Structures are given as C-alpha cells and as structure tokens.
Amino acid sequence: MTENEQMKVISNNLFGRLDIYATSDEITAENVIEELNSALPYHVQNLLQEDFLYWYRRNVQPILNRTKEVRPEILNIVQENHADEIVTFKNGYFLTKPAFYVARTKGAQDKVNRLNEYLYRSYKHSADNSAVNWFHTVGKGVILVEPDRGNDPETPVHAYALDPRSAFVVYSLKPGNEPVMGVNMVVSDGNARFDVFTKDMVYHLSGTSTGRMMTTQVNHDFLATAVSVDSMEPNSLGLIPIIEYRYNSVNMGAFESVIPLLDEINNIVSNACDGVEQFIQSLAVATNCEFPEGTTSNDIRKAGMIVLKSIGENKADFKILSQPLDQTQTKVLIDHLKNEVYRICSMPLVSEHGRTYDTTGSAVLANSGWFQADTASRNTEDLFRESNKQF
Length: 391
Fold this sequence. Notes:
The protein is an alpha+beta fold. The chain contains 10 helices and 11 strands. It has helices at 3-11, 32-57, 82-94, 109-121, 124-138, 259-280, 297-303, 327-344, 363-367, 370-390; strands spanning 20-21, 140-147, 157-162, 167-171, 179-188, 191-197, 201-210, 223-234, 242-246, 283-287, 317-321. The strands form 3 sheets. A 6-stranded mixed beta sheet has the order 1-4-5-6-7-8, covered by helices on one side. A hairpin with a 7-residue loop joins strand 4 (167-171) and strand 5. Helix 3 runs antiparallel to helix 5 and helix 6 runs antiparallel to helix 8. The chain is elongated, with a radius of gyration of 29 Å. The two termini are 43 Å apart. The mean pLDDT is 83.
C-alpha cells in the first residue's frame, strides 16, 4: 500500500476519537497490565488518526502525492491550508483570555480568588491554550495537574498540557462514566514506558513497541504492549490528575468533517494552475509539413515561427492546440467549496477584500456566520467547563 493510499484509508475513517472504557470497575496491581493492554488498541487507533490530523494541519496533505498520467511534466501542487486557518480562528475566538473560576456563593469569594491566583502562577492559562489548540486540531486535549515539586506555598500546583497521542483517560462503564485511570505513554527505540494513575495509586509499567509514532509518514504498524509493573506508589492527590478536554461530544477536530472538501479545493486549484501552464505550453500539430533534415520538435518550439510551403494538393497546416481553462467557472466552484467549509465549521465568511459580507446591523452577524461561530463556541464552552470542574 502506497503512502497516498494509507493516507486515504485514515482520511476515509475519520469519525471522531473513541472514548476508551475499562472492563473492570477498579484498577489494581493485579489487573493493571490486563486493563492497559485492553485499552491500548483503541488508543492506537485514536493515535493514528490524531497523528494524521496533526500533520494535515501542518501541510502534510494528500495533494503532496498528486500524480498525472497525461503530460506529467506539468504538475503543480498547490495547497490552501484552510485547516490551519480554521484552528487558528477557533483558538482565538474561543479562548481570548485565561479561563478562571468564579464563586457561586459570597462566602467562597476569597478562596476562589486565591485559587485563581494559584492557577495563574501554575501556568494553567498556558496549559489551557495548548489543550484548546490540541482539541481544535485532533478532537481531544489533555492536561496534567500535580503538586509543586518544590513545595512552594505560593504555587502549590503545576499544570501541563500533554500530547493526546501519548496521554489518554480510561472510563468506567457504570452510569456517569467516571475516569478509572489516566495513562501517559513514552515510546523510544522499541521500548515503551507507561505511567498509570488511579485515584489510589500510581503504577510505572514497562513494555515493548513496534513501528513509528508521531511522524510525518503515515504508518499502520505501530503497536505498544505493557509487559511488567516496575514500581508503584500511593497517589497523594486521591484523584486522577490527567483530564481530557473535548472540542465536541464526538471528539472530532475543528476541520475534520470538511477534509474531503479541503482536499478537493487543493485538487481544483492545482488543476487550474496546470491549465494555465498547459495553455502557455500548448502542443503543436503539423500536417503535411516538411522540415529540414535534423530539425527536432525542440528546434521548432524555440524558433517561435516557421514558414510552410504547400506541395500539390497536400495543403500544409500547422496548428497550436490550445483550449484555455474556464477560470471563471473554476473560481465559482472553489468559492462554493470554501463557503461550504466555512458554513460547516461555523466560521464567518470573508470576502475577497478581507471584509465580512454585509455591512449593516445584525445582518453582519446573522448572514456572515458570526452567530454560528458563537453557537459552536458556546457548545465547546460547556464541555470545557465540565473538564475544568474535574481539574
């Protein structure tokens, strides 16, 4: 299977990341290896899709493997990276300033203010920004919180954003789906190390891995397996410190649902550039023409003009095959696809001059997509608030 075919396999199976569930209600030293190995295949499936989405945003897209059978020497590869545009807009629109907590009762106001100060010192706002960037890109973000390693009373905790391709949470099948363990995985040179957090214990496991992960090259051969428990220690927090943040209820990235449209935009723009170049480098057809001995097609092309002489009834003819591409219709199609991308992704439409459509009153908000952008952001805010309660 070629790399382009592998990319298509992943691209055609993007339906949001899986939530992972445990078969046991309690994780112990006796079953932690079994439960982790049961969860890893689902995480690896998520990982491959997250890796594809991560690099897709960074311009590693199927158009890079474009080929042509007819006139392969004219091959333009043009990318309009709307994936990054969508994520960048979503990041800025959703989290314009650090998230903070508010008191619901007057008596708790001083404690909540102190909590917000602690979180500011703990770099929670930076972790929030990274988690939001991750879930807009791949559907999920992950934050780890831990006590300050230096026991600084002014900064009692620290928050870190983890790579969701490495970190994940496993949930209970009981109503409420409470988390039963959080996992952070590190892979290097065929070895795998897992830190597994439960409410009571922290387990450090080692294992094996095959294949590659986190690479620009798509691969289906990655596999990780836990083999042994190396050490364990009590979890002083009494809670699972790894928290998942979601962009939407099905864990899809912000541009994931429109990838077929984005690929088609790249394809049409690349073909349009080919059409312009092929018009400039049009093919020539000579009928009943006699050229001096040793004359090649390159000589004729370089000459720019030739003189023909008809002999008898055989009329000499020399034509340039040129059929210019209808760029107007092409632009209409590209604009339609872009509008659909913005509409599906709940983004405001932008005119060619960089201004939103419509110019007066609420029509700007309603018809330009700002209401849709605000509605989508509110949905994400509800999920963000739920994860922040866990934090």
